[in-house]
Specification:
Belongs to the lin-54 family. Keywords: Nucleus. By secondary structure, the chain is mostly helical. Helices cover about 60% and strands about 0% of the residues. It has helices spanning about 1-10, 15-25, 30-40, 45-50, 55-65, 70-80, 95-110, 120-140, 145-155, 155-170, 170-175, 185-210, 220-225, 230-245, 250-265, 265-280, 280-295, 295-300, 305-315, 320-340, 345-360, 365-385, 390-405, 425, 445-460, 475-485, 510, 540-550, 550-560, 565-580, 585-590, 605-620, 620-635, 640-645, 650-655, 670-685, and strands spanning about 470, 490. Strands 1-2 form a two-stranded antiparallel sheet. The protein is globular and about 75 Å long. It starts with a helix and ends in an 11-residue tail after the last helix. The protein binds a DNA duplex through loops.
DNA sequence: GAGTTTGAAACT
DNA sequence: CAGTTTCAAACTC
């Protein structure tokens, strides 16, 4: 099938183009020059970025310290070396249940370019970590826990540590590691590290749980990182460094990703996101690898937080955003790291994803993913509550597919999953096994085709992969003008064009996105429960919206449609407390930096992220989340975006008919503030630390 | 599960 | 840019 398809695809101009590009390269694959170039290429994007997010040596150092164990190095080496070999999804690398949850998704992917550490490796790591932790506990004050650990563990450590050092200290090496691989030069470079981190993280968590076990406790995270003071601190430091510096070093990102993955078992999502990453560029590609390989498993069973993949889409179009993305990613991961509590709700992934999305990309896809995630999450929980309900079952299935970025499923018959009709493609993720698509080209194997198609689509509409729903904080007067009446300040970027559904069904993208219709909508007979085009309906202010919300009947309807809403109610109280407590203004100032540029030029950006964040965070219940979401958004919205970017308003970016958006100009600067704010938010929002063991 | 409806995406 | 067609999700039965 694929071959045939590929041929067919190749026949198209796009594909031909891809081939042309690919073939020439292959000719020179073996060339030393080619290798050299390959090795360099990954770095370039970063340097070129406005905000240089070059790999932060400090971060590496931290990591190094933390992961000096011989195994690490060996693992690292082996991973790098075999990265190419990981393509075989059938490999039983993840046999253990514990890891399985977290890692399986990757394992199952057809591409499997980003295989996580094998179960054996993980086990080993766990053992090591456990030892290490024990050691640290015994010697909490041990200044050189790492060294001690090394000595304790084995003599090989020195060698390994050296390797690790080299690995860490030489970003170039890391990035170029896989350069030899013609097909996936970039991917390899990052994946190993990612895998490694994931493994480590899992190991740590497992160790903690096993040894002490307070997995379910609220303070678990802290303990986790504080107990093994050295390692924990180092990890934290690395995270901090990333955040503070705003440097989106690959390592930092990886770490965060790791956290994210570990906590949420989001690996699948990550894989699926690979598409986005790939699009974005070499770096993305690296990250993407992880995701790409797992398209097979992702699918699945778990509700993955979809978000991440989507974000990346933007990257593709805006390489410059990559850094931003990375940073966000870092934040996200960071958040996870700091506030594992989110895990309980699956939020962690969402946050990560959101952050990624926000970071840059334009993210329709992100948005969608978030939605999906939320939906998925919600559904899962709902299911738990009422597993028997057929409707819920259906929803669950649907949402699972939609929601998770990773779990999004399509049924494309004619589009080959290379058009925006395909939800997976639109979301920036590869199709996975659960998809019922025919002649699907949206797979890692057709990466070139996918990327080329994406480019084509983006050339037509730079924001094609941007989030459709924008959660405006309302900070921007401009935005407010348009959306002041909308609940939660959220709006569909382009607006809908509903004629018959009354904007009361999911046919309506506004409704589907849980946002009210706006002046941008050309809908007829709008009855959007989340806010009518004419301003009637949902309350005008966020606060009102949150407080008042829709009437009971609407609520019931919404709950039926968005099961997560119910949950949200509870969450609002538990999770939102912090936000509510915080004065919006203050929050906004802090948050502004990341707030999605929703409207802004940043193509990629942030709005999607914000939306995702909102939704995902809150399970996407549309209206309700509004406040929370908004708060978050505000919190993160970059000032420059709010202030004045010409394109800052969704409205601005839309063409008269609302269909075309001007390409965003990007300059994302990721202020440390933004990052910090995000982090703060997380900390606050995470009252307790749910057990890491459950994987959702 | 099949068929219909719907509106976005794509095309002209 | 508007109109039409294509497409796949959402929905209904």
């Amino acid at each position: 099938m694929e071959e045939d398809n590929s041929k067919g695809v190749m026949g198209t101009p796009e594909k031909s183009k891809n081939n042309e590009i690919a073939n020439p390269i292959s000719k020179f694959e073996d060339s030393p020059v080619f290798n050299f170039i390959n090795s360099l290429s990954p770095i370039k994007p970063v340097k070129s970025l406005p905000i240089t997010q070059t790999i932060n040596p400090l971060t590496f150092e931290y990591l190094q310290s933390v992961f000096t164990s011989p195994r690490v190095s060996s693992l690292k080496e082996s991973r790098f070396l075999r990265r190419n070999q990981l393509s075989d999804p059938s490999k039983p690398e993840f046999s253990s249940n514990d890891h399985k949850e977290n890692l399986d998704p990757m394992a199952s992917n057809s591409d499997a370019s980003n295989m996580p550490p094998s179960s054996e490796e993980c086990s080993n790591l766990i053992v090591e970590f456990s030892k290490n932790l024990e050691y640290n506990r015994v010697n909490p004050n041990n200044p050189n826990s790492n060294d001690s650990y090394e000595n304790k563990i084995d003599q090989n450590k020195q060698n390994t540590s050296c390797d690790w050092d080299d690995f860490i200290s030489s970003p170039s090496n890391l990035l170029t590691f896989g350069s030899s691989d013609n097909t996936e030069p970039h991917k390899q470079s990052v994946d190993p590290a990612t895998n490694y981190y994931t493994c480590i993280k899992n190991a740590i968590q497992n160790t903690l749980m096993v040894s002490g076990g307070r997995a379910g406790e609220s303070h678990e995270p802290e303990n986790l990182f504080t107990q093994p003071e050295e390692e924990s601190e180092m990890m934290m430091e690395s995270s901090k460094t990333t955040v503070d510096v705003n440097a989106g070093s690959s390592i930092s990102n990886l770490c965060e990703n790791m956290d994210y993955q570990h906590l949420s078992g989001l690996y699948r999502g990550m894989k699926r996101r690979s598409l986005v990453y790939n699009m974005a560029g070499p770096h993305e590609k690296h990250l993407a690898d992880n995701s790409s390989s797992d398209s097979g498993n992702d699918s699945s069973q778990r509700v993955l937080p979809p978000g991440i993949g989507l974000h990346l889409n933007a990257l593709a179009s805006n390489p410059n955003d990559y850094n931003n993305v990375v940073n966000h990613d870092s934040l996200a991961s960071r958040r996870l790291l700091i506030g594992p509590g989110l895990h309980a709700n699956f939020h962690p992934p969402i946050f990560s994803g959101q952050e990624l999305l926000r970071t840059n990309v334009t993210d329709y896809s992100l948005e969608r993913e978030i939605e999906n995630v939320d939906n998925g999450v919600v559904q899962v929980e709902n299911e738990e509550i009422n597993p028997s309900s057929p409707k819920k079952k259906r929803r669950r299935l649907e949402q699972a597919g939609e929601g998770e970025g990773s779990c999004k499923r399509c049924n494309c018959k004619k589009s080959k999953c290379l058009k925006l009709y395909c939800e997976c493609f639109a979301a920036g993720v590869y199709c996975v096994e659960p998809c019922a698509c025919i002649d699907c080209f949206n797979k890692p194997i057709h990466e070139d085709t996918v990327l080329a198609t994406r480019k084509q689509i983006e050339s037509r509409n730079p924001l094609a992969f941007a989030p459709k729903v924008i959660r405006g904080s309302g900070s921007s007067s401009e935005i407010r003008d348009d959306f002041s009446k909308t609940p939660a300040s959220a709006r569909h970027k382009r607006g809908c064009n509903c004629k018959k559904s009354g904007c009361l069904k999911k046919y309506c993208e506004c409704y589907q996105g849980g946002v009210g219709c706006s002046i941008n909508c050309r809908c007829e007979g709008c009855k959007n429960a989340f806010g009518r085009k004419d301003g009637s309906g949902v309350s005008s202010t966020d606060h009102e919206f949150e407080e008042d919300e829709t009437n009971t009947s609407e609520k019931a309807e919404m709950n039926a449609i968005f099961p997560q809403i119910t949950i949200r109610d509870n969450l609002d109280q538990t999770m939102d407390y912090s936000l509510h407590a915080t004065p919006l203004t203050a929050v906004r100032q802090l948050a502004q930096p990341n707030k999605r540029p929703s409207f802004s030029s940043i193509p990629s950006s942030n709005f999607a992220a914000s939306q995702e964040f909102e939704k995902s965070s809150f399970f996407q219940a549309p209206p309700k989340f509004g406040q929370f979401s908004e708060t978050i958004e505000d919190y993160e919205m970059p000032e420059f975006l709010l202030e004045g970017s010409p394109n800052s308003g969704a409205k601005l970016s839309l063409s008269p008919n609302g269909k075309r958006v001007t390409p965003p100009k990007r300059r994302l600067e990721r202020s440390s503030t933004g990052l910090r704010s995000s982090r703060k938010l997380i900390l606050r929002s995470i009252p307790s630390f749910p057990s890491l063991t459950h994987n959702q």
